[in-house]
């Protein structure tokens, strides 16, 4: 990503500073100290999930309000400057995309904020250039657009469920870095997040969703096989991250087994990577055990749910 898009920040505080954890629990979640380095050591996904202490509701509400105030500052800045911001949220079913987006946009101006969640493509869409149906929804000046799933459907659900051919999948994987480079070169500030969830937590949330009368709109036939095809989705995720993580459009990963920690740290990371006036640098430092940039060793080190 170009230098103008990502702001270089001072060394962050310890990850527990804004999570609502006690210092004792925070140290436990970080694992033993590495005497050779002051940088926090990234743990495996299962270790972090086991060690996480949930934020108290009061602390969560306090942090959420402060971060939403920062988002209002950000919006005021990009309206004044004419910036275009695009945030992509990907992840497995029930990983928390809807809930995270709801908190991000809750107090933003609806005229300059759009959430895009496209349905399945029509026959006309399928007959055209794959990226064509997404282009009309890209941000214009003074806009923040959040994609609740995006063109990466082709790398995930379409590939796993057989909704596209192997040739179409391969063409997508080859083309998407070039497409995103065009977007960034045009001036769009592009942030890509993959929300990662454990198999156990996904199964629990899908079961809760199925029995909740207020969440029936979320249920789909795809949900029924999400857990059954866990390994296939894992392989698709790993290939997508490896081949579409670029310097201009990097992936950042969010561990979402704990909803409250995931939401506030996603918001912190967004705010830390975008320039705006009046930023509270101390507030927007994310916990790097919850949100971190993808690297080639993430899979082997088991930093993602497997």
Kindly describe this structure:
The chain has a 6-stranded mixed beta sheet with strand order 2-3-1-4-5-6, sandwiched between helices. It is globular and about 50 Å long. The protein has a single domain, classed as Rossmann fold, CATH 3.40.50.300. Helix 1 packs antiparallel against helix 2 and helix 3 runs parallel beside helix 11 (259-273). Helices cover 42% and strands 11% of the residues. The protein is of the alpha/beta class and 306 residues long. The chain contains 11 helices and 6 strands. Mean pLDDT is 88; it is low at 1-37.
Features:
single chain; 306 residues; alpha/beta; Rossmann fold; six-stranded mixed beta sheet; 6 strands; globular; disordered N terminus
Summarize this entry quickly.
With 306 residues, this protein is of the alpha/beta class. The chain has helices at residues 23-30, 45-51, 57-81, 97-105, 123-127, 157-161, 166-185, 199-211, 221-226, 230-244, 259-273; strands spanning 84-91, 113-116, 143-148, 188-196, 251-255, 291-293. The protein has a single domain (15-21, 41-293), classed as Rossmann fold.
Order of helices and strands: HHHEHEHEHHEHHHEHE
The CATH superfamily is P-loop containing nucleotide triphosphate hydrolases
Distance between the termini: 29 Å
What is the helix fraction of residues, given as a range? 40-55%
Quaternary state reads single chain
For the largest beta-sheet, the strand count, sense and barrel status come to: 6 strands, mixed
Q: What is the fold-level CATH name, i.e. the topology?
A: Rossmann fold
Low-confidence stretches: 1-37
Number of strands: 6
- In percent terms, what proportion of residues is strand? 5-15%
Structural class, from helix and strand content? alpha/beta
Number of domains: 1
In the sheet with the most strands, the strands line up as 2-3-1-4-5-6
- Give Rg in angstroms: 19 Å
Q: What is the tally of helical segments?
A: 11
Quickly name the level 1 CATH class.
Alpha Beta
**Gross morphology:** globular
């Amino acid at each position: 990503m170009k230098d103008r898009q990502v702001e270089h920040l001072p060394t962050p505080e310890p990850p527990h500073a804004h999570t609502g954890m006690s210092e004792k629990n925070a140290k436990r979640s970080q694992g033993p100290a590495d005497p050779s380095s002051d940088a926090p050591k990234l743990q495996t996904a299962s270790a972090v999930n086991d060690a996480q202490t949930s934020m108290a509701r009061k602390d969560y509400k306090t942090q959420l309000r402060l971060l939403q105030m920062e988002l209002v500052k950000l919006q005021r800045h990009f309206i004044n400057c004419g910036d275009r911001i695009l945030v992509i949220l990907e992840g497995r079913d029930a990983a928390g995309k809807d809930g995270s987006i709801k908190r991000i946009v809750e107090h933003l101006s609806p005229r300059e904020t759009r959430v895009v969640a496209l349905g399945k493509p029509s026959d006309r869409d399928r007959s055209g250039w794959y990226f064509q149906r997404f282009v009309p929804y890209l941000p214009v000046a003074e806009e923040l657009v959040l994609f609740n799933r995006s063109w990466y459907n082709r790398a995930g659900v379409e590939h796993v469920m057989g909704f596209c051919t192997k040739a179409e999948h391969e063409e997508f994987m080859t083309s998407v870095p070039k497409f995103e480079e065009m977007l960034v070169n045009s001036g769009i500030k592009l942030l890509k997040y993959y929300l990662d969830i454990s198999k156990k937590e996904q199964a629990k949330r899908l079961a809760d969703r199925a029995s909740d009368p207020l969440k029936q709109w979320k249920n789909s036939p795809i949900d029924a096989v999400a857990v059954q095809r866990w390994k296939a989705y894992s392989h698709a995720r790993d290939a997508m991250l490896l081949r579409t993580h670029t310097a201009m459009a990097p992936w950042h990963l969010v561990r979402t087994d704990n909803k409250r920690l995931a939401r506030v740290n996603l918001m912190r990371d967004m705010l830390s990577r975008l320039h705006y006036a009046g930023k509270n640098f101390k507030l927007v430092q994310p916990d790097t055990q919850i949100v971190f940039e993808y690297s080639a060793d993430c899979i082997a080190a088991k930093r993602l749910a497997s």
